[in-house]
Amino acid sequence: MTGPSATRAAQKARGGQPAPLAQPVQGAQVVGRVALLLRLVGQNSLGASLAEIVRDSGLTRPTVHRLLTSLAAEGLLDHDAVRHTWHYGPEIFVMGTVAAARYPIEELARPSLVRLAEETGESAFLSIRRGAETVCLLREEGSFPIRSFVLYEGVRFPLGVASAGLAILAFLPEAEVDALLADTEAFAARWGGQHSPASIRANLERTRVTGYAVNPGLILEGSWGMGAAIFDRSGRPGWALSLTGIEPRFKPERQKILGQLLLDEASRITQTLQRPPIV
């Protein structure tokens, strides 16, 4: 059993005692801050300014500048002195190249993105779940001349925001969904009333019925998206394929066509991922 059915079957409550609280690790705060800054720099392919990083990190300007400078000294970041922006450095490239061999999802997904873009004319994407967020990994442009640029490589959205996050969230265990949507006031304040937990839950129910998620211009008016989850060997949704474009291209009658194409490609990748390893 694969896909949503397998995931729903796996959502049975599990017994067992709660794990003991982890002891604080010396230096963990610094590691957490470094990881946060690296994520923020990677969100924009054009680079991030010091002011933007300070704003989004919540850290003081001297702290951010000190950490960024230290990361640059290690080759993890580069600083563009002309544009005053920060970018990933050569060591990040090396690490990514080495790590890529352990995570072949991009290689598996690329043909599906090409087929989706060619068959629909829309832009096609692969996103991965990272904790409470989705991160866009790959983009394949379609032939339709008018495009949406809400989604691009490196951009992050909370689960439940954007079609990829909706598609993944819909097939997580209910307790996990409840935990992710617990901070209702902060979520709605950041993303607007259209992303209230009640609205998200209604969209999740529709997604469970059809198998694919629809984002009807909730992030940017007129910019629509649709997504379908990809499931790992344990039946959990870990990635999603999505299509984005302008509202007239996502009329109800075409949604069914686009949705089925997304489900077919997501199922193709899921089946490959769930094959037993060759020994």
TrEMBL record:
Keywords: DNA-binding, Transcription, Transcription regulation. It comes from the Bacteria. Residues 91-275 form the IclR-ED domain. GO terms for molecular function: DNA binding; DNA-binding transcription factor activity. The keyword DNA-binding applies. Pfam families: HTH_IclR, IclR_C. GO terms for biological process: negative regulation of DNA-templated transcription. PROSITE patterns: HTH_ICLR, ICLR_ED. Gene3D superfamilies: 3.30.450.40, Winged helix-like DNA-binding domain superfamily/Winged helix DNA-binding domain (1.10.10.10). Residues 28-90 form the HTH iclR-type domain. Residues 1-22 are annotated as: Disordered. InterPro entries: GAF-like_dom_sf, HTH_MetabolicPath_Reg, Tscrpt_reg_IclR_C, Tscrpt_reg_IclR_N, WH-like_DNA-bd_sf, WH_DNA-bd_sf. The keyword DNA-binding applies. This is IclR family transcriptional regulator.
